[in-house]
Design goal:
The chain is of the alpha/beta class. It is built from 14 helices and 19 strands. The chain has 2 domains: 248 residues, 3-Layer(aba) Sandwich (Aldehyde Dehydrogenase, Chain A, domain 1), CATH 3.40.605.10; 181 residues, Aldehyde Dehydrogenase, Chain A, domain 2, CATH 3.40.309.10. The strands form 4 sheets. The chain has a 7-stranded mixed β-sheet with strand order 13-14-15-12-11-16-17, with helices on both faces. A 6-stranded mixed β-sheet has the order 8-7-6-9-10-18, with helices on both faces. A 3-stranded antiparallel β-sheet has the order 1-2-3. The longest helix has 19 residues. It is globular, with a radius of gyration of 24 Å. The structure holds nicotinamide-adenine-dinucleotide. Nicotinamide-adenine-dinucleotide binds next to helix 7 and helix 8.
């Protein structure tokens, strides 16, 4: 991908000479114009009396999304190099998330409170749409993450300005077109562009939801706070999985190879640190074998587990990280997998041991197929290592010991704790969140997002005053 002041060029990571799309970046003036329209159209869309209309339109949009799934999955393969099986799975989940939020216009909109002092007084709360929701999204889940922001924002009555990642511009244009066909004109606007367009969205939004890196997130959070608007940010991760001595080596290794290297380690919740309690030779050997067996190649091929990383910068970052780790005592455990010839941004997977928990590989998100393997003498030490970074998105433990499970739930400091499961995963009705630098503001997903996308009002009514 490259962007000048006016043009975004999105390229295929497996074939960087191939331009997937080229469009003008949205200027701040245009963002401002779309914001005015979204606010205006949002007035009737967000009215209490339009709840059924909103539900109907969102159901129609979710049906359109389902019908276009195969088309969007293929576009995802082409534009962001996601292996076709994963792309299809992302679309299936996006449809289920859309269906869940399509019902939310009919959810309870407030609370009735007991009268305390005046028996005949009634107090209640109502929730009104926040106004215009600004949504800024990354490239790695180019359909699912936009859907899990756009649908609740619309369901609770807002207009939407959506700034997608430059790397996923073509998917964003296709997705927004198929949703917009079922919505009032001007309610949802997709605004291709880079940082300038993102900043302009932030300037116009009444509420801002961001997913992306910690570094950009900090800027966004600071600006949103400066404008006194609610902000929600889901950011980077360095998720750890603790493997207890009672874990079955073969099944733990299979799950972790997929969790660390699936989609070339480009999920925010990819497992980036594996911490074994004690040294399990059988587990390490199985992990190396499972990693070696992952097939790297053309993401359009159904037998391929791992495609390319997103761009040259990402590939360089992975190789620099491995070089640096090796220079500082790290050791690549696996014989690296063969990668396709040609100019695509393919890289092997790297399992690296011999780095201490303070090493940058165990402290910073490389966002590619690199995973640090460490060991701890006991479970408390493993928890200390897992908690010892600035990130706190997901953490997992593999064990059948219920005492360890209870301790993990209490002691692991992460937004999402998973037992005997990969660190990745999300459900529409379960809050998705992180702690420390991995998130800011209220969680995404679940019915609680209504609070984020709406303003609360409390109302107290008394009986009419008697004539004097
Ligand atoms: P990024 O932070 O580079 O970009 C995210 C979005 O912000 C893009 O749309 C980008 O154009 C926009 N942007 C960049 N600079 C901006 C600015 N100054 N003002 C406004 N907008 C700006 O992230 P990315 O490379 O697209 O995605 C990868 C990152 O996202 C990783 O760190 C990953 O962990 C994180 N991520 C987190 C989650 C989560 O739910 N926690 C999910 C997916 C990805």
């Amino acid at each position: 991908m490259s962007s000048s002041r006016f043009t975004i060029t999105s390229r295929s990571p497996q074939d960087p000479k191939s331009v997937v799309c080229e469009v003008d970046a949205t200027s701040p003036e245009t963002v401002s114009k779309f914001a005015t329209t979204a606010a205006h159209v949002g007035l009737s869309w967000g009215a209490d009396s339009a709840a059924q209309l909103r539900a109907d339109a969102l159901v129609a949009s979710s049906i359109a999304l389902e019908s276009a799934s195969e088309y969007l999955a293929n576009l995802m393969v082409e534009e962001v190099g996601k292996p076709i099986n994963e792309a299809r799975a992302e679309l299936a989940r996006a449809v289920s998330f859309a269906r869940y939020f399509a019902q939310q216009p009919l959810a309870d909109a407030g609370t009735v409170y007991r009268a305390l002092s005046v028996a005949s007084a009634t107090s209640f709360s109502v929730r009104r749409p926040a106004g215009v929701a600004g949504l800024i999204t990354p490239w790695n889940f180019p359909v699912l993450i936009p859907i899990w922001k756009i649908f609740p924002a619309l369901a609770y009555g807002n207009g939407v300005l959506w700034k997608p990642s430059e790397e996923a511009t073509c998917i964003a244009l296709a997705l927004s077109k198929l949703l917009s066909d079922h919505l009032p004109e001007g309610l949802l606007s997709v605004l291709p562009g880079g940082a300038d367009t993102g900043r302009a969205v932030l300037e116009q939004a009444d509420v801002l939801s961001f997913t992306g890196s910690v570094e950009v997130g900090h800027l966004i959070i600071g600006s949103a706070k400066g404008r006194h608007i609610p902000v929600q940010a889901e950011l980077g991760g360095l998720s750890a999985t603790i493997v207890m001595p009672d874990a079955d080596p073969a099944s733990a290794a299979r799950m972790l190879a997929g969790g660390a290297f699936g989609y070339a380690g480009q999920r925010c919740t990819s497992t980036r640190r594996i911490i074994t309690v004690g040294h399990s030779k059988a587990f390490i050997e199985a992990l190396v074998a499972e990693t070696r067996a992952l097939n790297i190649g053309d993401p359009a091929d159904e037998s391929v587990a791992i495609g390319p990383v997103i761009n040259r910068m990402a590939k360089d970052r992975v190789h620099d990280a491995v070089r640096r780790a090796k220079a500082e005592g790290g050791r690549v455990l696996n014989q690296t997998n063969p990668i396709p010839d040609g100019e695509g941004w393919f890289t092997p997977c790297f399992l690296v041991d011999g780095v201490d928990p303070g090493h940058f590989l165990a402290q910073e998100e490389v966002f590619g197929p690199v995973c640090a393997v460490m060991s701890a003498k006991d479970f408390p030490e493993a928890v200390d290592i897992a908690n010892s970074t600035r990130y706190g998105l997901a953490a997992a433990v593999i064990t059948s010991d219920q005492g360890v499970v209870a301790q993990a739930i209490e002691k692991l400091d992460a937004g999402m704790i998973r037992i005997n499961a990969p660190t990745s995963g999300a459900d529409p009705h379960v809050p998705f969140t992180g702690v420390r630098c991995s998130a800011y503001g209220p969680p995404e997903l679940g019915s609680g997002v209504q609070d984020f996308y709406t303003k609360l009002r409390t109302i107290t009514t008394h009986p009419p005053l008697a004539c004097a």
